[in-house]
Amino acid sequence: MKNNLLPLGTRDEFGRRAVAKQKVISVIQRHLSQRGFSVISTPLLEKQEVFDQYQLGNYQMYRFLDSEGDTIVLRPDMTLPIARFLSSTNIPLPQKFFYVGDIFRISRRLSGSYNQLTQAGIELIGYDSMKAELECLVIINQLSQELLKKNVEIELGIADFAPTLLEFLTTNKELQNKITQALYDKNIPEYSELIQQYSDLPQYKLLNKWPRLFGDPTTVFDELNNFDLSFELQSKISDLKEIITWIKKVMPEQKVSVDLSSRAPQIYYTGLTFRGFYQDGNDYLFSGGRYDKLLANFQDQTEPAVGMGIDVDMIADLTSPSNKSKKTMIYFDKDQWQEAEAKLKELPNSILSLSETKDDAEIEAKNSDATLLDLTGDDRRE
Amino acid sequence: MNKNRIKIALTKGRVEKQVVPLLEKAGINCDQIRQKKRRLIFDSPVQPYEFILAKGPDVTTFLERGAADIGIVGSDILVEHRSNQYELLDLKTGECQFVLASTNDFDPNEPKRKIIGTKYPNITKKYFDRLGQDVEIIKIEGSVELAPLTGLADAIVDITETGTTIKENNLKIYDYLDKVSTRLVVNRMSLKQHSKEIYVLVDKLEGAIKDENLSKEY
């Protein structure tokens, strides 16, 4: 077997894409540091139990055994390790964290998906105020401007809207789950069949409209006005309305929509969810929400928290490479090093040539598409 | 990719033949597909849709990767490939059913670990899991009926429309599994990016299907 082949679903990053990705990461890091967030970095390896509670969707994890025979995994998510960290240390809360790192998820073989993904994100822990959600929305707005020079569309949702609504319809948990699944998957043939049994109820009209309850906020809320919602649902909707009014006031240019028919981005979300997408992207660039119960997975005490992930790979794919001015390659003798170093500082887009002869330096410059600057003043060919 | 156009991946072959008249009934121009020759991609300036023709399993891959916005494909393939895109409409064409079939001497209750031949290992596994049985599955690419006849497998799980091929090969149906029909599936992100245009198409098609079924009844 050849020894220079990559495992399935991985890639080397080089050239234009590597540069674009590095730039995205540095913009995110600078932005969040400036907002006063503390950086946090957790290991790539975690015990499997950290992720036990949450089946993380349509993928598997890379697993190994350590020397004790415990199952170790390559982390498939960044939030659960941070929750683990907080529960095992006495960090005073509230705190704002940010991270950038790689996560690993085994996707379907030969599907063209990568198994190693770079994610950035923030976790605001110990905040029960809506201000925590608003800070995330401001960050989506500012980062998308800074990175893509355009606004993404922010889509707001309520993680437990569907279960809360269905509790009033039936006490049969299994049926609730079936309807929710069919609704979330927008498996309309199955969904229509499941709700058929309620066709005599006044709620049937809402059930029928439900899969399409997403898009422009005014349209969706107007639609909801036709129905008699429970007090609990009404208060969730009025929170959502409050946030939309706030966005319109503080970020009038920001495009915003709502979605009351989709699955929350992560199953541990409990409250408001938000995502950002772009007309040209194949997936969401930003996704997050409130997860007030997550810490209870690791400790007795719950802590209010809001988090958001940023898809660094997708943003890197969407950013167009900037037209940089041509590089200058500085060719010099060993004893001219200080002079060369001064030139390197002086010229903005320059690089030292490490070739021994001028002929080699010319080849090196050609390969890097650079102009050669010769400090030796030596025109002899060797 | 031009994101202003809606790219529809249509399963070529039988699905294409059954669905093109339905699309036309819904007011979508399919002249280019009807006169396709060997071409696989059709972009007509008269409507916002661009069609591509692909094999069923590839339709799900195009959709999954966002290389197509809409897919028209059999529910057998969607289930087998565990597609998690949005299934918005049952086109009520290509209707058939999964069955468990074998030779006359097959005993479904015989206490042994059965060998099952099929083109659909996931669907087969799901069926026997539900029965609480562990079986050995052999993946077969075509002419699945041969498996029990040659002794390669004890029984098969396959799709049948009328049961004719099964009968003609002296096989008997022992159980009926899920029903199959052609579905319209939409990429999750595309539904957000082009919801209006996609629902216009879905509603037109739904109307056409209803008319078709009414005319069948009378």
TrEMBL record, chain A:
Q: Does the keyword Cytoplasm apply?
A: yes
Q: Which Gene3D superfamilies match?
A: Bira Bifunctional Protein, Domain 2 (3.30.930.10)
Q: Residue limits of the Class II Histidinyl-tRNA synthetase (HisRS)-like catalytic core domain?
A: 15-314
Gene Ontology annotations of biological process type: histidyl-tRNA aminoacylation; L-histidine biosynthetic process
GO function term, MF aspect, one:
catalytic activity, acting on a protein
Q: Which GO terms describe its cellular component?
A: cytoplasm
Q: Give the pathway.
A: Amino-acid biosynthesis; L-histidine biosynthesis; L-histidine from 5-phospho-alpha-D-ribose 1-diphosphate: step 1/9
Where L-histidine is bound, by residue?
A: 77-79, 105, 119, 123, 268-269
* InterPro entries registered for this protein in UniProt: aa-tRNA-synth_II/BPL/LPL, HisRS-like_core, HisRS/HisZ, HisZ
Q: Which Pfam families match?
A: tRNA-synt_His
Keywords linked to the UniProt accession: Amino-acid biosynthesis, Cytoplasm, Histidine biosynthesis, Ligase
Q: What does this protein do?
A: Required for the first step of histidine biosynthesis. May allow the feedback regulation of ATP phosphoribosyltransferase activity by histidine.
Query: Hey, which family's this protein in?
Result: Belongs to the class-II aminoacyl-tRNA synthetase family. HisZ subfamily.
PANTHER family in UniProt: ATP PHOSPHORIBOSYLTRANSFERASE REGULATORY SUBUNIT (PTHR43707:SF6), HISTIDYL-TRNA SYNTHETASE (PTHR43707)
Q: What HAMAP family does the record point to?
A: HisZ
What protein name applies here? ATP phosphoribosyltransferase regulatory subunit
Give the originating organism: Companilactobacillus tucceti DSM 20183
Write the lineage as a comma-separated list: Bacteria, Bacillati, Bacillota, Bacilli, Lactobacillales
Q: Which gene encodes it?
A: hisZ
